[in-house]
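Researcher: Here's a chain I'd like modeled. Treat it as a single chain, no partners, no ligands.
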Amino acid sequence: MKLIADIVLNLTVVLNMILFTIMSFKRDGEWNIKNIKRALKFFTYLSNVLLAVSSLLIIVFPNSFIAWMIKYTGTAAVSVTMVTVLVFLGPTIGYKKVLAGRELWMHLLNPLIAIITFAILERRSLSFLNSLFGMIPVILYGTMYYYKVLVAKEEKRWDDFYGFNKGGKWYLAIFFMLAGTFAICMAFYFTGRIGFIVI
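Model: Modeled as a single isolated chain. Structure tokens:
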């Protein structure tokens, strides 16, 4: 029963991200392969794609430690997405905007599915060192975001669409994002080790 529930929930993530990826090719009523470039700018989309890939891997290879670690990394990434939306983007942009349509799935429902499946249905003990793998997506994306927003030449720059450099305080954003991501990783670490969740 637990295995069936895990497969259904993981498959839900895989299928909705396939749908959302297809939809990303359409903009202003036109289908164009170049439209996907816009989606690739956002950590929300990238973290959910990582989660979908890891969800598919865990369905196919349920006993693989590597698949489980990839699933953990994807789960940590979308957890960062969810917390950032609820704590920062919701109050600054508006919850109605960040929790509507496909955003509801990528910002809230997929992360919750990931947490439930990883922490309960696929639960194993996570070592401290392995728990730090959950920081990799944020570090990689954060480096790219910093470069694209603050360093790149004007024609290659991104707008500060997340508002992390508001008032020129990008260094605070770096601190809080890394500290928040570390806290999320530690939450998964302790959950697996102290038996907080009873199966």
